[in-house]
Design brief:
Spore Coat Polysaccharide Biosynthesis Protein SpsA, Chain A; alpha/beta; about 250 residues; nine-stranded mixed sheet; 7 helices; two-stranded antiparallel sheet; single chain
Length: about 250
């Protein structure tokens, strides 16, 4: 199994904080966002490698960080992929970045895909185990207490077995509290569908667009995220994450 971490954007909603700093290299409660995410990925027993894809602007910063980074679990190989994009032109989009890594690294394996600005308070071993048991594509889901911002994500419905029966990325109107999270599993058997999606020139921006397209073509399941989940999409959410994870870290001591 391999993981692809999507860090190719420019986080313009966080300007000026991210004007000269990659979002996932920002600290959250004293620890870099990317390191918090890797702490949740590296415990997965059969995870062989993690490929972090970023843009040309921040590629040197990620390489410098990786030179100094020492993961808690050393069995996982970590690499940085430069998508070659420049701010304001030739931006590839999340699904485009996923496809780039699949091709460039010649990946022919089960994959976990996660956006680098997603933070979890618990290890993702449970996600990987659930996905393995289904041997089908899986999207993480989360039920929001406050649905005010639910329309910024994908709306999801599942049946009693956890199979996705409906998914709509960023609906015009909020339809319910359960949303899709930018954490996905695609077994090796589903990789041709990803390539077909790209070849047919569908929307390559939001990763949820791939779920919206694929669940109608193959069984797709949802995994409820336990504990705390944060998506750092704004300055307010960054402030909220600092408070939340300061409490999480304190409780873990």
């Amino acid at each position: 199994m391999k993981a692809i971490v999507l860090a190719g954007g420019y986080a313009k909603r966080l300007y000026p904080i991210t004007q000269n700093q990659a979002k996932s290299l920002l600290p959250v409660a004293g620890r870099l966002m990317i390191e918090r995410l890797l702490d949740c990925l590296t415990p997965i027993p059969d995870l062989a490698s993690i490929h972090i894809v970023t843009n040309d602007k921040f590629h040197p910063d990620f390489c410098k960080w990786l030179d100094a980074y020492r993961p808690a679990n050393g069995h996982v190989e970590i690499s940085i992929t430069n998508n070659g994009s420049r701010e304001g032109s030739c931006e590839i989009g999340a699904i485009g970045n996923l496809h780039l890594v699949l091709d460039q690294e010649m990946i022919d394996d089960d994959i976990i895909v996660v956006a680098s600005d997603n933070l979890f308070s618990q290890s993702l071993e449970g996600f990987a185990g659930f996905a393995r048991s289904k041997n089908s594509p899986v999207v993480a889901c989360y039920t929001m207490e406050d649905t005010q911002h639910a329309g910024q994500y994908g709306y999801i419905e599942v049946d009693n077995e956890g199979r996705v029966t409906f998914f709509e990325e960023k609906p015009a109107e909020v339809r319910g509290p359960t949303i899709g999270v930018a954490l996905y599993y695609y077994p090796k058997s589903s990789l041709p569908l990803i390539r077909k999606y790209i070849d047919d020139r569908h929307n390559s921006e939001e990763p949820g667009r791939l779920v919206e397209w694929m669940y109608k073509r193959t069984p797709f399941f949802a995994w409820p995220v336990p504990g705390i989940w944060c998506d750092i999409g704004s300055k307010q959410k960054l402030e909220d994450a600092n408070r939340l994870f300061a409490r999480v870290d304190k409780a873990a001591v």
